[in-house]
Amino acid sequence: MNLFQPALSTFASDVDNLVMMITAIVGFWYLATNVMFFWLLWRYRAQEGVKALYVTGHEPELLRWITYPHYLIIFMDLFVIVGAIKVWYNVKQNLPEPQEVVRVVGQQWAWSFQHPGADGILDTADDIKTVDGLHVPVNKVVHAKLESRDVLHNFSIPVFRLKQDIVPGRVITAWFEATQAGVYDLQCAEMCGIGHGLMAGRIYVESDEDHLAWITANTPK
Amino acid sequence: MSVAHDHDHGAHDAHHHEMSFIEKYIFPTDHKYIGKQYMFTGMFMALFGGFYAYVFRMQLAFPNMSVPFFGRVSPMEYNAAITQHGTVMIFWVAMPVLIAAFGNFLIPLLIGADDMAFPRLNRLSYQIFLVSAVVLIASWFVPGGAFGGAWTAYPPLSADARYSLTPMGSSMWLIAVALEFAAFLLGGINFIVTAMNGRAPGMKWNDVPMIVWMICIASILFMASVGPLVAGAIMLLFDQNLGTNFFDPRRGGDPILWQHLFWFFGHPEVYVVLLPATGMCAEVIPVFARKKLFAYDTVLYTTIGTGVLSFFVWAHHQFVAGIDPRMANVFTITTVLISIPIAEMVFLYIATLYGGSIRYTVPMLWALGFIFAFLIGGVTGIYLGASGADIYFHDTYFVVAHFHYTFFPIAFIGTFTGFTYWFPKMFGRMMNETLGKIHFFGTMISFNFIFLPLFATGLGGDHRRIYNYNNFPELATPDLQNLRILATVALLVLIAFQFIFIYNTFYSMFFGPISGTNPWKATTLEWTTPENPPGHGNWPPDNMPTVYRGPYEYSVPGREDDFWPQNQQS
Ligand code: HEM
Ligand SMILES: [Cu+2]
Ligand SMILES: [Cu+2]
Q1: Does one domain contain both A120 and A207?
Q2: pLDDT(B3) > 60
Q3: A6 found inside a domain
Q4: Same domain assignment for residues A175 and A191
Q5: What phi-psi label fits residue B564: left (phi over 0), alpha (psi between -120 and 50 degrees) or beta?
Q6: CB within 5 A of ion ligand 2: which residues?
Q7: Class of domain B38-543
Q8: How many H-runs (helices) and E-runs (strands) does chain B carry?
Q9: Which among A77, A93, A109 is the end of a domain?
């Protein structure tokens, strides 16, 4: 049973690696704390004729057991922070130049997409509009201009590890570069009303030839 | 000395003065009765919160089936169910039980006062709370149905009936929440004033039991954070009903503003309910380990540190909400840093066990269970605080599982800790240990089987607030569905085990063995009342307690008894 969604964008494995690093760190803490916890529970269970110790918690030789692990936590927190910001910077802050720009419109409760068409420029006569299916070329930096007609929505593509809220009244740009052709789920991941559970879109990642063929077949006459 | 206040029914000298039935049970000002009113109202509301969870979990495990006791769940009803579940559990279960019920019942008793500083304000607080609950419940039955825009109520969805399709439901929901806030503002000020002014002679700051500190700090956090949200709630109410546009961008409003107001309150709110629950552990663990609380003042500083930091992390809920992406870096740092005081606190509780003589009574099991479960909630929070990872996890079931590993321990495990521990003080009788242990293990095991699978479905891509995953090809797999079914079956088991608790509670309340005033051989003042349960005024007015030492003097060398009550001179 493989639960994980495959990692199919250029930054998807960066996100996954960050998750792995966090797992290693918190997994260590989780296990260490539990070993200590259960050991103490067993070792100091009430026994006939054994009285509990009287300590305040300020004895240096005892306090050590708290402070040293604690320094270690602070140290490891630094790795988490640096790792998180690095990934974040690449996905959300530093957008590479686009090779293709599409418009994604969320509304209650459907997606609509506008593709630049043969001339590669958005908002020209040869744009291709679709509902519920977004077509993009593989191995190209795509910018998605996210817009909403009504309430908040969210543009989420699990295999790309990409997620971005769509806010009415604003145009928010999300980027990705798909690394493998195929058809994947595109979810609305922000509560948008009764049909929120129905806002399932699909993203078609196509090789250059297929993408061209799709454009040719669908260009409005 | 007792708190100076005006009792509306004088006659304070006669300890056993008779009160009418109405005065005692319907409109009491006695803190113990108000505490119990809050307790039972909160537990009653938990039945609704749990019922909603049952309804939507059944729908997820067996889509489109007719759920027993409910019927088929439409998408609209699904959204309403999750929204009302979340709202009820946080505002009408966790808050009233942990803060109001335990705060009212415990604070005067633990500091040696005869009542709260403002008993009538206290009664008003409960009455407003009761009205808020009635408004909320009424909102489930109005035309158009209950509000379903999630407990976070993000506009524009929540601001406009054309989007939410619940014209009355949304407004009543908002009014109910606002009333509830008013009730807790009144309660909070009362707790703080009482703890500041009502302490027994001799009780210095470091003689105050930790739970009192925790409830007071929680009240301060609540009062400091809720103001902006109340203003926001009124703006939202205007948007809904008067055509203003504070939050609608098409006419100049800003939907993100609401998110800031909501989470500036919402994140501290998590600690508002967390602190009392950890306070229970701080009381219970020393008693049953027969040990002094490890590093009392450090526990207190970590609490204050957590409280202060909690005001600077709110935007971690909004990483991908459209805020300036540079802001995420700041909030990632503050969020990950909050692990420092919280981890320290957990370590100190665990360290209290060192050198102890541990008795596995039911309250102790719950306190230890809290630590065990909360640890999972704590470590999984790191994934979500790390902005880069949250891009994937945001609004998935990983988040749902994470916060239930904090909220379930808080609202249920914490409550069971306190309830089973102070039961003899509340009702003068002991609960049944065997039933208590069956309930403990049944609840803990099934709880883990509900939420561990949900971490996995979240990793697999399940996003929140979806009534049927079959609409998403990647999520309509048998593997994911089996996990969803496992979680639901575990919930049914968990619910079944709660009947044992209900039975044990009501049976023991009337037929349990008489407990005596100090059944656990504990040191704090509530266990020194001459009557059990304590009568009106708690102690005879001419014999109020005086405090000579800290709250956790167990196993002091050279003494025959292994506990040394706070009020014993030598
Ligand atoms: C009795 C056991 C519980 C179960 C089985 C349960 C289950 C769930 C599930 C599966 C969801 C997600 C629903 C969805 O997104 O479609 C949810 C949401 C939620 N739960 Fe619980 N829960 C339980 C107890 C609690 C408790 C004790 C609290 C808080 C004190 C709580 C607070 C919430 C909140 C705030 C939400 C979010 C609601 C929203 O999305 O608007 N739950 N619960
Ligand atoms: Cu949606
Ligand atoms: Cu938060």
Answers
A1: yes
A2: no
A3: no
A4: yes
A5: beta
A6: A 188, 192, 196, 199
A7: mainly alpha
A8: 18, 2
A9: A93
The answer to whether the CB of A134 falls within 8 A of the CB of A201 is yes
Report in angstroms the alpha-carbon separations of A65 from A28, A36, A68, A103.
16, 11, 6, 56
Residue A7 forms part of a structural domain: no
Nearest CA to ligand 1 atom 19: B86
Residues A25 and A61 in one domain: yes
Interatomic CA distance for residues B389 and A86, integer angstroms: 11
Q: pLDDT by residue (tens digit) across B486-540? A: 999 999 999 999 999 999 999 999 999 999 999 999 999 999 999 999 998 999 9
Q: Give yes or no: residues A87 and A106 share one domain.
A: no
User: pTM value?
Assistant: 0.95
Residue B259 three-state SS: helix
Same domain, yes or no: A158 and A129: yes
Q: How far is CA B503 from CA B363, B416, B441, in A?
A: 17, 14, 16
Does some domain include residue A3? Answer: no
Domain shared by A104 and A180, yes or no: yes
Domain positions in chain B are 38-543
Handedness of CA B235, B237, B240, B241 (dihedral sign): negative
Q: And the tokens for B448?
A: 């883990």
**What's the complex ipTM?**
0.96
Choose one of B48, B89, B92 to mutate for the ligand 1 pocket test, by most ligand atoms within 8 angstroms of C-beta: B89
Residues 6+ apart with CB under 8 A from A212: none
**Domain span at residue A68?**
12-93
Half-sphere exposure of B229 (CA within 13 A, CB side): 28
State how many domains chain A has.
2
pLDDT exceeding 90 applies to what percent of chain A? 94
Burial of residue B301, with CB atoms counted within 10 A of its CB: 0-12 exposed, 13-18 middle, 19 or more buried: middle
List of chain A residues whose C-beta atoms are within 8 Å of the C-beta of residue B564: none
Report if residue A104 sits inside a domain: yes
pLDDT tier for residue A3 given thresholds of 50, 70 and 90: confident
Task: Judge if A119 and A57 occupy the same domain.
Answer: no
Ligand lying closest to the C-alpha of residue B270:
3
The answer on A104 and A89 residing in a single domain is no
**Helices and strands in chain A: count of H runs, count of E runs:** 3, 10
CA–CA–CA angle B219, B225, B227 (5° rounding): 105
Percent of chain A with pLDDT over 70: 99
Q: Whose CA is nearest to atom 6 of ligand 1?
A: B53
- Nearest-Å Rg of the Cα atoms of chain B is 24
Ligand 1 pocket member B317 (CB < 6 A): no
Of A69, A93, A117, the residue at which a domain comes to its end is A93
pLDDT score, position A221:
76
The answer, yes or no, to whether the previous bond of B156 is cis (omega within 30 of 0) is yes
